[in-house]
Write a sequence for this structure.
């Protein structure tokens, strides 16, 4: 450990350096000029500083003041060595942040004992600081790993759903991007918008619980089949709910609420207005718009303009006006997303192929 000694008297410097050398692991660095010592301190951090009080140019207290102004050095103990034993000097030195005093003439065993104590304290403080930094790093690493695991889980679940759902992967790509776009335009923070991007693709995960005859039926569903198909919202929620992973909780909320309508005529809970979670209200716009503009086994796709007109016509009935406006305010970007992610045919098989 490095001990900086500043004393204008060369003899004192030699004696102090010798005393420091006799303390385990301590190495003296000596300066007879306090201004030079101050310059050295601008670039170095010793483990302990011994300052003579009476020095020309800059006395011990002035140098102590300068040291304490330096944030980097604020945990380095400073000992003032002084012949002045008045209470006033001691109080002033303590006020300036001095850690201990040594009275001249020094008693060598006393100096050694004090140095040992202060260096031991310094060492244990450094250890604690290192351990705290290490723990903080570890917490950060584990948190990041958990986040990645959550995201991977989401991705795998979405992938599993894709195998059964005639909707294409491109639909999920587009509708999740539209969802994020709407949230951004409506002023939500970046974390929420990015979580929405990752959670939205699971909106129809519940379809894995719908019988093939209904899920893959090429034509319109009958009155009897419709309620069964609509169960996908509740099934999706059951699959995803009560997770410790925040992303899955958001996905569960979306699965349950993406078919609710703003006027209360949706399903499964006929919620209306602000009772429908924000995520569900956003995804509703994104999902319907993309469903209309996608090619499905049972229908041709609508033009972007026709789908836009449909969203506008249902502003305030099916869709939350706030999010319709947010969606339309980024129309250029909507068209860009649509063209950048055209339907693939990976899972877009005709129902007869299953
Ligand atoms: Fe759905
Ligand atoms: Fe969808």
């Amino acid at each position: 450990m490095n001990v900086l000694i500043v004393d204008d008297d060369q003899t004192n410097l030699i004696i102090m350096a010798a005393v420091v050398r006799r303390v385990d692991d301590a190495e003296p660095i000596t300066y007879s000029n306090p201004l030079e010592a101050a310059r050295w301190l601008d670039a170095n951090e010793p483990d302990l500083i011994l300052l003579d009080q009476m020095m020309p140019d800059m006395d011990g207290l002035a140098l102590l003041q300068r040291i304490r102004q330096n944030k980097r050095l604020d945990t380095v103990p400073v000992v003032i060595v002084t012949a002045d034993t008045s209470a006033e000097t001691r109080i002033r030195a303590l006020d300036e942040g001095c850690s201990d005093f040594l009275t001249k003439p020094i008693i060598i065993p006393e100096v050694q004992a004090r140095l040992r104590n202060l260096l031991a304290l310094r060492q244990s403080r450094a250890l604690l600081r290192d351990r705290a930094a290490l723990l903080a790093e570890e917490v950060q690493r584990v948190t990041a790993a958990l986040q990645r695991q959550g995201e991977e889980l989401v991705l795998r679940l979405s992938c599993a759903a894709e195998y059964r759902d005639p909707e294409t992967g491109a639909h999920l790509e587009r509708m999740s991007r539209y969802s994020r776009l709407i949230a951004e335009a409506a002023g939500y923070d970046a974390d929420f918008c990015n979580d929405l991007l990752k959670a939205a693709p699971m909106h129809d995960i519940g379809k894995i619980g719908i019988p093939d005859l209904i899920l893959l039926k090429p034509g319109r569903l009958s009155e009897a089949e419709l309620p069964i198909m609509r169960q996908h919202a509740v099934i999706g929620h059951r699959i995803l709910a009560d997770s410790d992973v925040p992303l899955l909780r958001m996905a569960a909320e979306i699965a349950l609420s993406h078919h609710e309508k703003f006027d209360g005529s949706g399903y499964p809970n006929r919620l209306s207005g602000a009772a429908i979670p924000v995520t569900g209200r956003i995804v509703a716009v994104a999902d319907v718009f993309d469903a209309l503009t996608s090619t499905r086994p049972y229908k041709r796709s609508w033009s972007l303009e026709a789908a836009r007109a449909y969203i506008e016509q249902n502003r305030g009935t099916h869709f939350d006006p706030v999010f319709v406006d947010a969606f339309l305010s980024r129309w250029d970007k909507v068209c860009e997303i649509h063209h950048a992610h055209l339907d693939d045919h990976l899972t877009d098989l005709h129902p007869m192929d299953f």
User: Anything to note?
Assistant: The beta strands are 2-6, 27-31, 48-52, 78-82, 100-103.
